[in-house]
């Protein structure tokens, strides 16, 4: 082999391992937390399907896109009261019907609106590609945690149907995901931020708060994201990673 060929191999190998170790976390992570909706299983497409059906119901009052805007406005106004999840979404749909119709909507229309919510609660749990294999590879080597927002009963239902419960040391269903919520979680886990890695599809909820408290965070984009969770600013941070899929985490541990 020529000297130039050997040099190329050494440079390529060095760059490869440089990329794998650039986050300097290989030997520090002990606890890995996973968001659930649109990280472990499909969620947002079901909500968008339900919203489309809702807008179709109300097209006798307003165009589709305006109904969608009104529903989102209602959700944001009530977020501090209802929190995240399907039940809050149902209440917001009913409130939007009343406002848009000027309280003239029929009981049949209200019933059809509630039915959309009920059907959303009964949706199947469909795991995303690579989830089971990744959890099986990490189990026993790291303390695995679910850290997700949403309605308690609904998230417990989805977790049970997913068949993933036995992979996790702890399940945390959070009312919100701010930095103080993560600090509370880490205190409960007796885990320092430098030993904590969070994986999720939302930059706003899964990434930024964890980086703020000194933890590691990996973004796994999903093709559909609720507008409230969208974050378009390019993020650069020494503890931040961007993965194409959940299995890529295995290359960095």
What does this protein structure show overall?
This protein has 9 helices and 6 strands; from the N terminus they run H-E-H-H-H-H-H-E-H-E-H-E-H-E-E. The longest helix is centred in the first third of the chain and has 19 residues, at 3-21. Helix 2 packs across helix 3 (64-82). The protein has 2 domains: 28-41 and 126-252, Rossmann fold; 44-121, DNA polymerase, domain 1 (Orthogonal Bundle), CATH 1.10.150.240. It has 253 residues and is an alpha/beta fold. It starts with a helix and ends in an 11-residue tail after the last strand. Helix 9 links the parallel strand 4 (196-200) and strand 5. A 6-stranded parallel sheet has the order 3-2-1-4-5-6, with helices on one face.
Question: What keywords describe this structure?
Answer:
alpha/beta; disordered N terminus; 48% helix; Rossmann fold; 253 residues; DNA polymerase, domain 1; 2 domains
Q: Over the alpha carbons, how many angstroms does the gyration radius reach?
A: 21 Å
The tally of structural domains comes to 2
Low-confidence stretches: 1-22
Task: Describe the global form.
Answer: elongated
Structural class: alpha/beta
Helix run count: 9
Helix content: 40-55%
How confident overall, as mean pLDDT? 87
**Number of E-state strands:** 6
What is the H level of CATH, i.e. the homologous superfamily of the largest domain? HAD superfamily/HAD-like
Distance between the termini: 33 Å
What is the strand arrangement across the widest sheet?
A: 3-2-1-4-5-6
CATH class of the largest domain, anyone?
Alpha Beta
Fraction in beta strands = 5-15%
Q: What kind of sheet is the major sheet? A: 6 strands, parallel
CATH T-level fold name of the largest domain: Rossmann fold
Give the ordered list of helices and strands: HEHHHHHEHEHEHEE
| CATH architecture label name of the largest domain | 3-Layer(aba) Sandwich
């Amino acid at each position: 082999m020529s000297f130039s060929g050997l040099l190329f191999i050494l440079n390529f190998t060095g760059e490869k391992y440089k990329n794998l170790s650039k986050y300097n976390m290989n030997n520090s992570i002990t606890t890995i937390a996973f968001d659930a909706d649109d990280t472990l299983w499909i969620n947002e497409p079901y909500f968008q399907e339900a919203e489309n059906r809702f807008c179709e119901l109300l097209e006798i009052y307003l165009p589709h896109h305006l109904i969608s805007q009104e529903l989102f406005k209602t959700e944001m106004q009530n977020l501090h009261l209802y929190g995240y999840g399907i039940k809050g979404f149902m209440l917001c749909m009913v409130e939007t019907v009343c406002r848009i119709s000027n309280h003239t909507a029929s009981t049949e229309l209200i019933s059809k609106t509630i039915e959309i919510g009920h059907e959303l609660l009964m949706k199947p749990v469909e795991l995303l590609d690579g989830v089971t294999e990744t959890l099986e590879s990490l189990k026993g080597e790291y303390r695995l945690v679910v850290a997700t927002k949403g309605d308690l009963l609904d998230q417990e239902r989805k977790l049970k149907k997913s068949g993933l419960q036995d992979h996790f040391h702890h399940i945390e269903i959070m009312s919100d995901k701010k930095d103080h919520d993560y600090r509370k979680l880490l205190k409960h886990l007796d885990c320092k931020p430098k030993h904590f890695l969070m994986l999720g599809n939302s930059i706003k909820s899964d990434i930024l708060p964890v980086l703020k408290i000194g933890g590691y965070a990996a973004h796994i984009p999903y093709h559909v994201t609720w507008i409230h969770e969208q974050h378009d600013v390019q993020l650069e941070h020494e503890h931040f990673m961007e993965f194409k899929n959940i299995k890529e985490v295995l290359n960095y541990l």
